[in-house]
Q: What sequence folds into this?
């Protein structure tokens, strides 16, 4: 049976879990659980019925859908909702994930006292591998069969889906699945948090690449927004303060080795 698998985990969870008492890790799990498992009225509105099964262990989650197109849209909205809910926090929780389409089977758990079911299948393996090996940062990556399904659909080809120079597909989750629903203020607030995090941590030799990846994601998303919805794009740019932070971001990029020139060019284009 072919199914769509979203595998995601919390960015930087290992570092959070190593702190005394693992308080940061516990807080991060609470934020994710708030969107996925609580009965809050707002959460019920945000939660998507597309996910037929849900599995979790530590910071890893698997969400299972039948169709790749609504799964892609729901996954993008989940990523944005989580980023927005805690965007004003000093260390907001971010997730990183991948979608694959293929075989996945629900089986009995190894330890029934701690779980009801387990999940196996080649699509599960590929989703995990893609999340681990793909471009860094809070990305939402797509296996090729999922990307092709999206490209062959009626979705705008120049909107949510993007491919890097190596051909790897991902969803620009800062944008809503429907361009008509773009809200420059909300996108700008999340983008502003990404800029803040990039400037604070982008130069870190151990994990800075994740925040440079976040910056790249934001700049590509803002370019799409400006092109598709200029008014919302201007609102997002003003809200996130990209022009005000241009000099600091340029200094950050100069300090990094082997960066793609496209990242620099995107910054120049959006602040011209």
A:
């Amino acid at each position: 049976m072919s199914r769509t698998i979203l595998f995601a985990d919390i960015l930087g969870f290992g570092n959070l879990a190593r702190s005394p008492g693992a308080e940061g890790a516990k807080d991060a799990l609470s934020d994710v659980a708030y969107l996925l498992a609580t009965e809050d009225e707002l959460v019920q509105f945000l939660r998507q019925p597309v996910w037929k099964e849900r599995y979790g262990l530590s910071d890893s989650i698997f969400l299972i859908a039948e169709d790749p197109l609504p799964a892609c849209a729901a996954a993008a909205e989940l990523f944005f909702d989580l980023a927005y809910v805690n965007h004003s926090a000093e260390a907001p929780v971010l997730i990183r994930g991948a979608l694959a389409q293929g075989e996945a089977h629900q089986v009995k758990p190894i330890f029934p006292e701690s779980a009801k079911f387990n999940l196996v299948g080649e699509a599960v393996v590929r989703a995990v591998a893609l999340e681990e090996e793909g471009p860094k940062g809070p990305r939402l990556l797509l296996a090729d069969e999922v990307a092709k399904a999206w490209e062959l659909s009626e979705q705008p080809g120049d909107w949510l889906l993007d491919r890097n120079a190596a051909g790897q597909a991902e969803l620009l989750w800062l944008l809503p699945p429907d361009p008509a629903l773009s809200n420059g203020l909300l996108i700008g607030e999340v983008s502003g948090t990404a800029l803040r995090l990039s400037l604070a941590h982008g130069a870190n030799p151990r994990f800075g690449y994740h925040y440079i990846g976040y910056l790249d994601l934001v700049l590509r998303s803002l370019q799409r927004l400006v092109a598709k919805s200029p008014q919302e794009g201007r609102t997002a740019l003003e809200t996130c303060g990209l022009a005000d932070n241009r000099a600091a971001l340029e200094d950050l990029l100069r300090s990094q080795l082997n960066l793609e020139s496209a990242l620099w060019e995107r910054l120049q284009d959006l602040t011209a």
Observations:
- The chain has a mean pLDDT of 86.
- Residues 176-272 form one domain.
